[in-house]
Prior knowledge:
heterodimer, A: about 120 residues, alpha/beta, 5-stranded parallel beta sheet, B: about 900 residues, mainly alpha, 5-stranded mixed beta sheet, two-stranded antiparallel ribbon, 36 helices
Amino acid sequence: MEKILVVDDDPYILMSLEFLMKKEGFEVKVARNGTEALDIINKDIPNLVLLDIMMPDVDGYAICKYVKASKKLQDIKIVFLSAKSKESDIQKGYDLGASLYITKPFSTRELMKKVKEIISSG
Amino acid sequence: MNNGIAIVIALLYLLFLFGVAYFAEYRLKKGKSLINNPYVYALSLAVYCTAWTYYGSVGLAASHGIEFIAVYIGPTIMAALFWPVLRKLVRICRTQRINSLADFISTRYGKNFSLAVVVTVLCVLGIIPYISLQLKAIATSISVLGGNNSPEHNLSTFLQDDTFYIAGVITLFIILFGARSINVSDKHEGLVAAIAFESIIKLVAFVAVGIFVTYGIFNGFSDIFNQAAENESLKKLFLLESNTSYTTWFGMLLLSMLAIVFLPRQFQMGVVENVNENHLKKAIWLFPLYLLLINIFVLPVALAGKLLLNGSGVSPDTYVLALPLMHGSKILGICTFIGGFSAATSMIIVETIALSTMMANNIATPLLLSTQKFIAKEDRKLTRSILTIRRVSIILIITLAFLYDKLVAQHFSLVSIGMVSFAAVAQFAPTVLGGIYWKSASQKGAMAGICSGFAIWFFTAVIPSMCSAGILNSDIVVNGIFGIEWLNPVSLFGISGMDMITHCFFWSILFNTISFIAVSLYTSRSAQETYQAEIFVDIFRHSNETEYNVAWKGTAYISDLSSLLSKFVGNERSERIITGYAQKKKISLASKQADPRIVAFVEKILSGIIGSASARIMVSTVTKEEKIKIDEVIRILRESQQMIELNKELRRKSVELQKATEQLTAANDQMRDLDILKDEFLYTVTHELRTPLTSIRAMAEIVYDNPAMEEEEKDLFLSGMIKETERLSHLITQVLSLEKYESGRQTLNKTAVMLNQLLSDTVSSVATLAKEKHIEIKNNLPNSMFLVQCDETLIQQVLYNLLTNAIKFSPAENAVIKIGIYTNHDELQVWIEDNGKGIPNDLHSLIFDKFFQARSQTIKKPQGSGLGLAISKKIVEMHHGKIWVENADVRGSRFIFTLPIS
């Protein structure tokens, strides 16, 4: 079963995404901040991470950079979910190796479609 | 020790001087000028101190006490006037390419040839004896060092004379470093450096002797003065009750004040060789300081000489040298000799340069140039001829001084010759000073002043000297010339009671000034003169304006001017000079006829080479000048004046424009900054709106797409949506209220408020919230009243914001919030403290910015709209209070705000 990690500091977004992913049949883990996220990534490597950028401790960019720099972790797919909507922010996300950058607010149906595509593409 | 050793020492010293001068010129070639330095300039002015200072001051002090100091106080007073007077002379000479006193006077008074000749002749007459005095001092010091007391004066021993050879080497030095380049307006780098160096040598040597005599032979100043005080005649020397009269003091002061500017060597060093006007600023204090230092030991040495050498046949003029020799210090004796030698040589060198320039440029060259044959000469030969003239002049001057020394000088004392020279050059003072401050001073006036002054000088100074020397019958000084009583050279018009020099100075300057002013007032001036007077008097205005009209009318061809100039500077340079000037002044060279400005410019360049009088002759040979009428000059000058005014106006306008531009740019920048801030704010607001919007949308879609979900779960999402909507509307309210504060539309509704009451009310309103999170609120409010004028609603909002913040950041366990209030001078302080994890120090000032987390890019505050603290700050500031945060004592943060009482 595909493993998915959801990282966001907003409890309602976290709750919604967890519900959606579980419903799709994925094995879901959640993290409320960057430290928790890194902890989970290292312990139980997920296939895909839904990653917020602005967080109180470690930001999403740093996590993505860490993942892509590690041989062991670099196959993890990263999908950024962020309220940062500037062109330069989006570009940065892709430059760091993200599979997708989705700006908030987003459509949950669209998100699910994209996530399934990414997972099935290998 | 014999004379031979002394001569070898002198020659070695001169060799060393060559080295110094070569080194300076070598440095200049490398672009590192030694003389472009205010200290070197001030030291070069000390050429004022000659052998007369070195040996003669002590001699004078030994006979007349502190009278010697007068000729140093005069220059000290004059130094204060360096900035207004000397600077003006410097500026005139630089812009007009003037290189001697004679040239200066001639240029000012219409470039008059005869005036230049008169000034030159009189300078030579007045100064030659003074130069010979230095030769005499050298000869004397050589024989004293050699062990003989007085040198022989005999022409038959010419070739055996020591000074003859030394004078020869000095002449060689002057020719090498003073007459190398044809362009006399070039600075004499090596020469000036050598003179400054000599100034150091003579100062050090004299002070060394002073210290040796005062502390080596005697036991300090008080010892000398005490011993001298026991002798009635010596006591007089250091008290003002000596026989020096008031008029003598006054006369010497005035005379030396003028000498420091008008002695040819001072004019050469102070004006012609000046590299930078700003050097004068340092010279104003440095030069008097030098004079002070070199005079400190004069009286002690004189008294010591009197005490130890009186009756031994040693002349007081040689005490300086005799004292160390007598006490067996040969080394010091040699040092002293070198010091005196340097004082003498520096004077000879500079004075000769100045006089030879005058002679060559104002007499010899014009005479030669007036013969057609000479003008026709080839370029190179002409240059060489002019240099030859200058070299011959140098040799001539030294020879004259040498002959004067051998034939005449033995009859006079060191000092009297010096003062006679001072009086001679003082005759130029009315003409020069009048010339730079008084536009109506005329050529005829100048001529009348100088001639009458010199006639009186000759009559009242030279004739009495000749009488006392036995050359003339001394009956003249007793009964007057031809037996006419009122024509007595020492008591003219029956006025007696002054010493010879003061008497001479008084009458000569009186006649000089009166005739100068009177003749100037009653004679008309030529057009050329009017023009020059304007330039000289208003030099600071003219030399700042690059563009002014030239008072010249006539026909001239560029090719003629160019070939004239090329005779002196070579074809290539001549071409370059003229085209360069034309380009700078935007003068077209297309027409063959030369613009008057080019004519004037070529003349100016030539002046720098052969002097203004000669330059005028040269230019007139290739141009056809029309007589210019006086009213034309006045018109030209007026036009120049208008142009200057116009220029000033333009400059003022452009400065204003520039200012306006700067203001505009600043305003623009400010606008852009504001724009950036606004953009940033908008971006942040929309960003803050996105998060609740995202969760609301996600939760709504979930509920909508999953009708079959459990009731309990559905409630969770729906209540979440309600909470997020509340958050959204709260954010909007806060943005709007902040906007209200920032635009200044928020008004205060001040009433008398019991602050402790307000605080307890607010605490109760958050009590439930606190209880939920198990937070203990410790209320340390005293019972006393804290009455303050403020807007109750707004201050409550501040308290509420701070309390809810404290609750938010409280730790999960053992959370305590403390509250306090107290009076501090004229304000109330309220503090609220939590024991959460605190705020890093570097963020303490930033957290009061709106949407602070936006600035810190990707790391954000845990919760909150990001506007609460910004709004609180606005409210407190509107009450003229302050708000800040500091670290709590153990852990957590303490927020404090103040409100002024009253």
